[in-house]
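Human: Cast an eye over this sequence-structure pair and say how the chain folds.
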Amino acid sequence: MKKIIKHFIEHPEEKENFNDMALLLFEYLYKHNQDYQQFCQRRAVGIRQVRHWKDIPAVSTDAFKNAFLSATPHEQCSRIFMTSGTTTGISGKHYHKDLEIYDLSALLGFKQYVTDKSLPTAILFPNEEEMPNSSLAHYLEILKANGQPDSMHFITEKGLEVAALKEWLMAHQKQPVIILGASYSFVHLFEALSQGEVLPIHPDSLLFDTGGFKNFSKVYQLDTFYQKLLSVFPVRTNPVNMYGMTELSTEYYTQFAFDKVLLKRGPHWIKYKIIDPATGLEVEQGKPGLLVHIDLANINSVPAIQTGDLAIDHGCGFELLGRVKNGEPKGCSIAAKDWLEGHHD
């Protein structure tokens, strides 16, 4: 199965075969992932009932907290990524036999939507050794490896190292760089800088954030956050935001633009649909509902994920509205906040 999916990911000219690939993956995971098979059977759905990728039963993200959603025995899984477990204290677990497809998906998606250049990279997030169960820490490590040898992390066991970041930027101000980080990490940086402070950066550099910053000490609206980001880092290109989840193996991307609907788009091996939470049926385009992902890079867990995110399908991408009412905040900004509050400059 891995060989088939790898070929599909590496060949965008075959994107019209998505449905066939999705059905193959569903059949494979139905046969090899016992908990997923039981989930489908409880809904009276078997291999013969699924004829289109939209028919594939979607597992709620909450199921990752209790079920063993893996086609590979636990002892043969080389990596487990875990969610933040913010409200219940129980973390969801995403089991990976290996990370070959995960890494390929991350790198090719980033190259398609952000940049295919290898740039010096500053990362405002803890490294993989400090957060071994964080999918974002691993994702950023992939991007760091794709960058230049002098790429660095600036959130360590000491917290956010502002002085080191400034020194690194000074040394690189004659060449484009890329600044990557959780959204909350940038908020923490803003609060550490003096009023109106501008950091030295080449104007052709790139800015990249992921996650959000609601429910934290200082709440930014999207426009004010990106205005602040661009005032601290005065670059020519608008920042890119990444939407990802521990339960997925592929990311979506949005380039920020003022006064425009921000649409999230992904590479050809992931699709989405928007459903009515009451009926589970797909809603009409342009109407809000719950977001469901079908991710072909999820070759060891489940092919379809039902989120607690509200979204609107615009045909060429989805607009993220936020979490369902009373839904717990999720994601990498939670992890960044927890880390920074536990480690001081």
In short: The chain is about 30% helix and 20% strand. Residues 331-345 have pLDDT under 50 and may be disordered. The first strand starts at residue 59 and ends at 60.
